[in-house]
Specification:
Strand content: 25-35%
Largest sheet: 8 strands, mixed
CATH class of one domain: Alpha Beta
CATH topology of one domain: FAD/NAD(P)-binding domain
CATH superfamily of one domain: FAD/NAD(P)-binding domain
Structural class: alpha+beta
Bound molecules: flavin-adenine dinucleotide
Distance between the termini: 56 Å
Radius of gyration: 22 Å
CATH architecture of one domain: 3-Layer(bba) Sandwich
Shape: globular
Length: about 425
């Protein structure tokens, strides 16, 4: 039984835990990270966003990531029937500060961040499972499989099962985003040459979509996202479902015809939710532990790192002056909640059939595509130029339901039986 005293205890060693661990340890705070698994461990979420680049500099990991990762310069969105394709490059995004990003296997990415946390002085304890937290006005006690840990503040970065969110009953699922996903790593997936080969490719059918993410010279991450209800009706294993969906789409069949599955197909479901609050007296939720919207725009790791940075900055100030907690935690709630609202609206629009019709009809004159591109890169600060263009984009998607302002896609592929 241990009874240590720390400034901050962090639950989880993923990006939402390692980011604040690095920043707080760099400030000289006494930090412990409690991670239930032994790293490296598998995680899905390999496509990163340009607006994490600034954070990678601050964390001191950009150079090591650059050596280990694939560059990512943008994305391609195509229809499953192969009749419509649109590529966009972050360098063309509306007044973007960061024009590129990384694609990287998460086991290696998360290991880089956790190693960095150790290097700058955080105590990292792997194989330690936090079972529950006693939250009191004078500090926090975490109960683990290895005894108790005491700290002045706690950051919960424990991922979608959110230890504190569950304990406090804060979880609210998004009823309209009940999805199921199956995914695996493959060798031999067809790839374009040059810069086009670095793009995340999204292939969209009726009520489902695929991702193809290049991980290195050989391996590609391939995943399918579909309605959870359709998956249940099909009564297939995740691997058989992924194979059946690939077989149903001409574009995917072509790209996957010479590919081989490496390891097993894995799956995830019931992942979209938001906790009612992200902070309370002496605690903050970061990353997926605060909420997760949907994998479509690869915002998960970006939000884990962004919230980890904001949480570390707030707690560092509160450690020096406890009277600032109410104001700084409220600002954290507002910032993270506002970003989640933005992406939720965008994700909800994506699942409208008209989204792809509008998105794949570039309107260069108004720079609508450039504004959408900027949001996809992680530009979440307020910019008037992006705001009005996004409002116009949503309006066109709404109007497109009634009037064909953009050419209709008539060849629709569905996974329903
Ligand atoms: C199908 C799918 C595809 C995705 N694709 C992308 C993508 O392309 N790009 C992207 O950016 N994001 C993607 N995501 C999202 C991404 O996976 C997450 O947003 C990201 O992993 C969040 O990081 P995190 O640190 O909050 O949580 P995690 O990465 O889940 O880390 C949480 C850590 O906490 C530990 N933990 C949990 N419980 C305890 C406990 N009780 N005690 C101690 N430790 C504990 C876990 O072992 C884990 O290591 C995808 C998600 C899904 C479901």
């Amino acid at each position: 039984m241990s009874d240590h005293e720390y400034d901050v205890a962090i639950i989880g060693g993923g990006p939402a835990g390692a980011t604040p661990a690095i920043l707080l340890a760099q400030k000289g705070r006494r930090v412990v990270v409690l991670e239930r698994e032994k790293f490296p461990r598998f995680r899905i979420g390999e496509s990163l966003l340009p607006y994490s680049m600034g954070a990678f500099d601050r964390l001191g990991v950009r150079e090591i990531l650059r050596q280990k990762a694939m560059p990512k310069n943008g994305a391609e969105i195509a229809t499953a029937c192969g009749t419509r394709q649109v590529k966009f490059f972050f360098k063309d995004g509306f007044r973007l500060k960061h024009g590129d990003a990384f694609q990287m296997e998460r086991a290696a990415f998360d290991q880089v961040l956790l190693d960095r946390a150790r290097e700058v002085g955080a105590e990292v304890r792997e194989g330690v499972h936090v079972e529950r937290a006693d939250l009191r006005s004078d500090g926090v006690t975490l109960h683990t499989n290895e005894g108790t840990v005491r700290a002045r503040y706690v950051i919960d970065g424990s991922g979608r099962h959110s230890i504190l969110g569950s304990q406090l009953g804060l979880r609210r699922p998004y009823a309209h985003l009940q999805k199921f996903s199956c995914f695996g790593h493959y060798e031999g997936v067809q790839r374009d040459e040059g810069i086009d080969g670095t793009l995340t490719r999204l292939v969209r059918g009726e009520g489902f979509w695929f991702w193809l993410i290049p991980l290195d010279a050989q391996r590609t991450s391939v995943g399918l996202v579909m309605e959870a209800a359709t998956f249940r009706t099909r009564k297939l294993s995740p691997e058989a479902m992924l194979d059946a969906a690939i077989a149903a789409c001409p574009l995917m069949r072509e790209r996957m015809q010479h590919s081989t599955l490496l390891g097993k197909v894995q799956s995830a479901g019931d992942y979209s939710f938001r906790n009612e609050r992200f902070t309370g007296d002496r605690w903050i939720l970061t990353g997926d532990a605060a909420g997760f919207i949907d994998p479509i725009f690869s915002t998960g790791v970006f939000l884990a790192i962004h919230s980890g940075e904001r949480a570390a900055d707030a707690i560092d100030l509160v450690l020096s002056d406890a009277t600032k907690q109410t104001r700084l935690f409220a600002a954290y709630e507002k910032n993270l909640g506002g970003i989640m609202d933005k992406y939720l609206r965008f994700v909800t629009a994506w699942y409208e059939p008209q989204f792809i019709e509008v998105f794949s009809t570039p309107a260069k004159r108004l720079q609508l595509a450039a504004a959408v591109n900027a949001v996809l890169a992680g530009h979440v600060g307020f910019s008037w130029g992006i705001w009005w263009r996004m409002e116009l984009f949503y309006l066109v998607v709404r109007l497109q339901k009634k009037w064909p302002l953009c050419p209709r896609i008539t060849e629709r592929i569905s996974l329903e039986v």
